[in-house]
Amino acid sequence: MVSVINTVDTSHEDMIHDAQMDYYGTRLATCSSDRSVKIFDVRNGGQILIADLRGHEGPVWQVAWAHPMYGNILASCSYDRKVIIWKEENGTWEKTHEHTGHDSSVNSVCWAPHDYGLILACGSSDGAISLLTYTGEGQWEVKKISNAHAIGCNAVSWAPAVVPGSLIDQPSGQKPNYIKKFASGGCDNLIKLWKEEEDGQWKEEQKLEAHSDWVRDVAWAPSIGLPTSTIASCSQDGRVFIWTCDDTSGNTWSPKLLHKFSDVVWHVSWSITANILAVSGGDNKVTLWKESVDGQWVCISDVNKGQGSVSASITEGQQNEQ
Amino acid sequence: MKLKEVDRTAMQAWSPAQNHPIYLATGTSAQQLDATFSTSASLEIFELDLSDPSLDMKSCATFSSSHRYHKLIWGPHKMDPKGNVSGVLIAGGENGNIILYDPSKIIAGDKEVVIAQNDKHTGPVRALDVNIFQTNLVASGANESEIYIWDLNNFATPMTPGAKTQPPEDISCIAWNRQVQHILASASPSGRATVWDLRKNEPIIKVSDHSNRMHCSGLAWHPDVATQMVLASEDDRLPVVQMWDLRFASSPLRVLENHARGILAIAWSMADPELLLSCGKDAKILCSNPNTGEVLYELPTNTQWCFDIQWCPRNPAVLSAASFDGRISVYSIMGGSADGLRQKQVDKLSSSFGNLDPFGTGQPLPPLQIPQQTAQHNIVLPLKKPPKWIRRPVGASFSFGGKLVTFENVKTQAQQGAEQQQQQHVFISQVVTEKEFLSRSDQLQQVVQSQGFVSYCQKKIDASQTEFEKNVWSFLKVNFEDDSRGKYLELLGYRKEDLGKKIALALNKVDGPDVCIKEGKQESEFLPSAGGTFNISISGDIDGLITQALLTGNFESAVDLCLHDNRMADAIILAIAGGQELLAQTQKKYFAKSQSKITRLITAVVMKNWKEIVESCDLKNWREALAAVLTYAKPDEFSALCDLLGTRLESEGDSLLQTQACLCYICAGNVEKLVACWTKAQDGSNPLSLQDLIEKVVILRKAVQLTQAMDTNTVGVLLAEKMSQYANLLAAQGSIAAALAFLPENTNQPNIVQLRDRLCRAQGQPVPGQESPKIPYERQQLPKGRPGPMAGHTQMPRVPAQQYYPHGENPPPPGFIMHGNVNPNAATAQLPTSPGHMHTQVPPYPQPQPYQPAQQYSFGTGGSTMYRPQQPVAPSASNAYPNTPYISPASSYSGQSQLYASQLQASPPTSSSAASFPPPPSSGASFQHGGPGAPPSSSAYALPPGTTGTLPAASELPASQRTENQSMQDQAPKLEGPQNGWNDPPALNRVPKKKKMPENFMPPVPITSPIMNPLGDPQSQMLPQQPSAPVPLSSQASFPQPHLAGGQTFHGIQQPLGQLGMPPSFSKPNIEGAPGAPIGNTIQHVQSLPTEKITKKPIPDEHLILKTTFEDLIQRCLSSATDPQTKRKLDDASKRLEFLYDKLREQTLSPTIINGLHNIARSIESRNYSEGLTIHTHIVSTSNFSETSAFMPVLKVVLTQANKLGV
């Protein structure tokens, strides 16, 4: 069942482009063409406007919450070519940093896994991806990948933090040697995977080709302790692909077509447990998908205005008893 | 930003949108001779490869043609859906010829690429267009007013759209309508445009501004609005783009005067109707919004004129422009840096000038450097307004707790009245996919709570589908029964009674030994009493020796002798007499000698050495071993032995035996090993199999707690992992409370501590930080500088707003009241006493912010509301005020106990400033909201007497709170109406709100153009209305929403007020609630509101039916509505309809409205609510707004609800 538990009237004066809950699911951040970012407290079905953040000079495309270990921090990106990082200080939200390093609309922002520190990836229509790393003292270091995607990067998504070699290895005091990776999708119809080299430079590791039109979104699935890496991608061409990589070197990715929709697919989002994918299409339709036992992706729900039923047949997996 | 360029003087055509990859076809332009004056011509196809960063375009094919072209288009006719190269290239030639090419054949290098050719036209064919509805239809225009419609399926004989226009003129442009497939427009350099209806086979309208200066060089239909089109003029005296609406064809709707000289070509984006490209003899390429005239973008171009410009149909950000300097350039309108793009030019120059870097410095010589540098500073900005195609209209994202956040931007439909103003809603939904999992988890929880373990296990046994499962549950069940070991034995197949019978049977078979024993007993009774003498032999044989030994008390020797003589029984009996030590020795010696099958068992029984049995028994006999252990083992070694056996089974046994180890672990009560063993055997990733495991584990842990009094709080790594996995699954299904319940306590494993923290906060509870010493995360800060005096405690959080959320819908337990805690520790310590309720701290919020959030509480309880007083509150005000969050240096950990941990700039409490104010009657922060389901009656919230004792005295309140109260009182008089605090009575709010209404209300847009008044032109009826035109009806109707929502606000406010945790004495004073008066007074005021007596006139009899009908309808709705939000809406509506009844009483409504209302009432009677809504819309749109605004929106809400509920 998909049932509405809270309808938040955002009072935005124009189209909403993104709505994201914080780590705990108690606060909602929204952004809109009306150039504002709003934060609501939505606990217990309520909606209390906590902040109405003004600072962008164009439509705001995306918002992203940082992990709460760094405090209450929200990043937003806009058509005005800016990325703004907002922070709650003493109960008030204010701008803590503004990144103006892009020459065109910034379409996507995504925080790296908290284990790496505060790192924000930003994808822009100028084709570049920039990486902002907080270095302390209010300073942010910028690394830029120019020409990451010709005529524009539409989406960025970090790989979960996995220590190479061991899967459920408890860190024994020492900082594990993470390999930082993220995926990006762009107007060159490509998905690219980027990896940080030992010298701290970002290098294109993979090019995933299957889409025949703009890649609108990519979403790296959360890690659930399995050795497989999974990425979902969606495109202007209406196709949604699930990419998986089983080998540890991370070089062999194979796509599986989830579905071909009749309209552009704008957004894909994994559930926290990585077993359900929410797909948002241009026909204002939201569908939920789940992998069945035989590895096929099945649509389990059509969500309309936040409501939908869930087809039960495949959700209850076969019980494996002796 | 320029992406690509090709050095051709050519006409251009992009491949159709379906085609992937994107191709650009170029055909040598007939208008220009290139520098060589060559008359050769070619048709080329390039691929747009954007992943190649260079400016070069990849040439795919070249076909040498005998023609030069005036026009080139690429139609999707006969394209396969796969998007393979196909379609038709249609070229307009110099001599009246139209040629069809097969682009796939051109790319394949085929010689025969012409599909068909026809030279029916006179003069050059300058105009061509493909019908987007029937892609086999192509219109062409040439000299002598010639227009032909070609069917690509039957190319030989074209049709005409009607009689030729007179006088004969050249056709320079032709275009099919984008909305109506049989409408075609043509234009000529003379400035006239003609619109043809192919069904009527005649021109239906001619468009001309009669200036005689319009020399049409471009014509394009509006992509969305069927009656609108633009014309571009080539004349330098009138370099304009005119926007026409055919419904008002006397003059242009809008004139775009952005070019300084004549316009050579235009192109209207199909992807965004607000983007029109135009290029002119002023060498500019502009992108403007034809609907407003605003220039959105000027492409950075060189000084050359462009004569052809095209949007790429597939990639909406890309366009191509052909210029007279012999180049086709491909641009993106999304801006971007021009870095490196000039490189091609530089390279070219370098190659022409040879090596200008003879010294190998890696730098070009100065002459080349100069233009390059200026170029690089030239960052190209994107369009002023974001194009439609990057505005994401929809999104769904998962968040913690199985919640899905969705939004969709539904297109506004103007004609549907009041509620159709665009509502920017975000839905938060709960996604539940594992119902069985959840219900089982639920059951388990109930069992744990009710302690009904035995019946639970029994149920499980009954439901078990496999023998093993049954066994496991039986074993678990035994844990909760008396004589558990005995029952274990039974389960292993050793029933005591059965055994007794069997033994009896066995003994009977051996000739009644039973009797013998009895006889023996009798004998032994006889013997002493007989008192007879017996012969003590002391002969030298064994008997004699034994006798001698006995006589000397040397039992040891006597026993040895007996053993030696194999007189085992004698030996044992003697040994018993000889004492414990001797007996043990004797037993050992006996066992050493004895060799029978069961000796070892007997050995173990006698020696109590079960370890050996367990260690060395054949694993096939694990049952027996377990049974023996169950029978004999001492409590302290019992579980270790079971454990050992289980371990052996697991490590040495085959797969079947391995699973049996589970039973041993259950007996042992070893949860951790059970988990390990189970996990090995089962697929743990499936939620239900995890549920299987957790059920057992939970029951077993309970059993261990009960029977073995062991410390079950210690949780092993594996179990912790499974439990957190389980909790994660539960959380993902939205069962956060359950997840918390199952999460093991007292563990320091970071993943569990983190999960607990997340769950607690997700639930809206402060994390019991004091209980678990570990902080889930090392808090890191974005230092904003400002290390305060308490630098060591800069991480001390505080709570930004008061938040007393009753949790769930339970009424507060008696005696439960808010605490104005000074110490967060105290707050958390209170927690367990009132589970389900969340307290947060008193708000150390500086004024005047408390008003805003406080008022919005009522929003939360009042359901979704629109109206929010927008009082600008300067955030800086907070700093100016002596705001003092309570500070407790001891609570530096309290990051977990707080809702919003944030950095605090510590400053000392300003208790002195607060002391001068009288103690507020109640802490402004301490009130409690009703849950959504709370009964509306205020009396229901009357607190039990006794509770007042827990109200903190003012002196106990943190200074900040007092300060805040004071500030509220200070502030209140300055504020008015909706800006007032939450504690102001609705009565005060109402008046200013009414006043405010007109401010929110957007008056109907004044009619500024004839387009607003449809002329009744038959064409305008045939064609769709211009959707973007604001219709007065819609703007008027769209108002009532905020008004209505405002009403809900009142409602929301009333509720929390009614249940303020106030001692009764405070409600007494009877003062009309002046702003700033103590809160208690205002409460009294509120409570007295409903009883306010107003003498009202009766409703006239003939209209009474309205009241009864509407009220009846609301009642019906209320009885079938399920969610509290709807109920509140309805309740509210019922109240607000009083406005209507008042008007009825006063008889102030106009007859049309009265009539309409009666019509609505009739439609309600007939349950035809949609008709009622239609009538409603009609009334709203035709009546005076002020007359109806008080009740019509409410009526609409009721009708809509009724319709939805189907009552």
From TrEMBL, chain A:
Keyword annotations from UniProtKB, A to Z: Lysosome, mRNA transport, Nuclear pore complex, Nucleus, Protein transport, Repeat, Translocation, Transport, WD repeat
Single biological process term from Gene Ontology: protein exit from endoplasmic reticulum
CC terms in the record's Gene Ontology section: COPII vesicle coat; lysosomal membrane; nuclear pore outer ring
Keyword Transmembrane on entry: no
Coiled coil: none
Compartmental location: Lysosome membrane; Nucleus, Nuclear pore complex
UniProt GO MF annotations: structural molecule activity
InterPro entries: Sec13/Seh1_fam, WD40/YVTN_repeat-like_dom_sf, WD40_repeat_dom_sf, WD40_rpt
WD repeats: 9-50, 53-96, 208-243
UniProt key word 4Fe-4S: no
Function: As a component of the GATOR2 complex, functions as an activator of the amino acid-sensing branch of the mTORC1 signaling pathway. The GATOR2 complex indirectly activates mTORC1 through the inhibition of the GATOR1 subcomplex. GATOR2 probably acts as an E3 ubiquitin-protein ligase toward GATOR1. In the presence of abundant amino acids, the GATOR2 complex mediates ubiquitination of the NPRL2 core component of the GATOR1 complex, leading to GATOR1 inactivation. In the absence of amino acids, GATOR2 is inhibited, activating the GATOR1 complex.
Family listed: Belongs to the WD repeat SEC13 family.
Assembly description: At the nuclear pore: component of the Y-shaped Nup107-160 subcomplex of the nuclear pore complex (NPC). The Nup107-160 subcomplex includes NUP160, NUP133, NUP107, NUP98, NUP85, NUP43, NUP37, SEH1 and SEC13. At the COPII coat complex: interacts with SEC31A and SEC31B. Interacts with SEC16A. Interacts with SEC16B. Component of the GATOR2 subcomplex, composed of MIOS, SEC13, SEH1L, WDR24 and WDR59. The GATOR2 complex interacts with CASTOR1 and CASTOR2; the interaction is negatively regulated by arginine.
Protein name (record): Protein SEC13 homolog
Species name: Ailuropoda melanoleuca (Giant panda)
Gene behind the chain: SEC13
TrEMBL record, chain B:
Biased composition regions of type Polar residues, renumbered to the chain: 822-833, 958-970, 1018-1036
Composition bias type Low complexity, residue spans: 898-916, 936-946
Region of interest (Disordered), residue spans: 763-796, 822-880, 898-1036
Keyword Manganese applies: no
Gene Ontology BP, a term: endoplasmic reticulum organization
Transferase as UniProt keyword: no
Subcellular location: Cytoplasmic vesicle, COPII-coated vesicle membrane; Endoplasmic reticulum membrane
A Gene Ontology cellular-component term: endoplasmic reticulum membrane
Domain Sec16 Sec23-binding: 546-739
WD repeats: 118-160
Membrane topology: Peripheral membrane protein
GO terms assigned for molecular function: structural molecule activity
Keywords assigned by UniProt, alphabetized: Cytoplasm, Cytoplasmic vesicle, Endoplasmic reticulum, ER-Golgi transport, Membrane, Protein transport, Repeat, Transport, WD repeat
Entry-linked Gene3D superfamilies: 1.25.40.1030, Functional domain of the splicing factor Prp18, YVTN repeat-like/Quinoprotein amine dehydrogenase
Main location class: membrane
InterPro entries: Sec16_Sec23-bd (IPR024298), SEC31-like (IPR040251), WD40/YVTN_repeat-like_dom_sf (IPR015943), WD40_repeat_dom_sf (IPR036322), WD40_rpt (IPR001680)
Oligomer and partners: COPII is composed of at least 5 proteins: the SEC23/24 complex, the SEC13/31 complex and SAR1. SEC13 and SEC31 make a 2:2 tetramer that forms the edge element of the COPII outer coat. The tetramer self-assembles in multiple copies to form the complete polyhedral cage. Interacts (via WD 8) with SEC13. Interacts with PDCD6; interaction takes place in response to cytosolic calcium increase and leads to bridge together the BCR(KLHL12) complex and SEC31A, leading to monoubiquitination. Interacts with KLHL12.
Function of the protein: Component of the coat protein complex II (COPII) which promotes the formation of transport vesicles from the endoplasmic reticulum (ER). The coat has two main functions, the physical deformation of the endoplasmic reticulum membrane into vesicles and the selection of cargo molecules.
Entries under PANTHER family matching the protein: PROTEIN TRANSPORT PROTEIN SEC31A (PTHR13923:SF23), SEC31-RELATED PROTEIN (PTHR13923)
Family named by the database record: Belongs to the WD repeat SEC31 family.
Record protein name field: Protein transport protein Sec31A
Species of provenance: Ailuropoda melanoleuca (Giant panda)
